[in-house]
């Protein structure tokens, strides 16, 4: 089962440059960075080709209403939030894969939806700070309902999970302040999409998660009153 998890706000504003010239969530980003730095230091080790089959890292996120879920290697994109990828340095310069920007059969690696993309960008930044540049050795599990069998298997093999918190884009509560909609389950008071919350529990069954939650004021009238970053340990 995964040893650690970090739940971060799945807002595109967390990606540097996505909000234009004004950085409204700098304090939130610093809290996310600190949590991911601890996760990387604790559980991420160099991958050995042909090793034991572990999936080192999984990015777990909801998809927008009406979109299909998916599982596999992904590249980040904020196009779904109306932000052109070429204007965001961390995305425009993404090391797509080891084949000159193209995946299997000469096709470009598919783009993740916004919540998973936020997780990918934040995770890569933590790996770079830890001296591990390049494309993150991570798979993405995007859910619109129950996790597929391969996704559940990946979660159970993972060393750590990076989770995009908040309601799925386009669903009731997605635009509400963090205090307005709360998950009544084991992650209370961190908001999670129901499918994501269920997958996290399946990943550690029959065990459970122990969580430490950091609350950060939104600091702007057009932002949620509070953002929350959660660090989980499986047991």
What would you note in describing this structure?
The chain is an alpha/beta fold. It has one domain. It is 25% helix and 19% strand. It is built from five helices and seven strands. It has helices at residues 26-43, 89-92, 114-129, 149-157, 194-204, and strands at 4-9, 57-62, 70-72, 138-143, 160-165, 209-217, 226-234. The chain has a seven-stranded mixed β-sheet, with helices on both faces. It is globular, with a radius of gyration of 16 Å. The protein starts with a strand and ends with a strand. Residues 47-53, 98-105 and 173-184 have low confidence and may be disordered. It comes from Krasilnikoviella flava. Residues 214-235 form the Peptidase C31 domain. This is Peptidase C31 domain-containing protein. InterPro entries: AV_PCPalpha. One of its GO terms (molecular function) is cysteine-type endopeptidase activity.
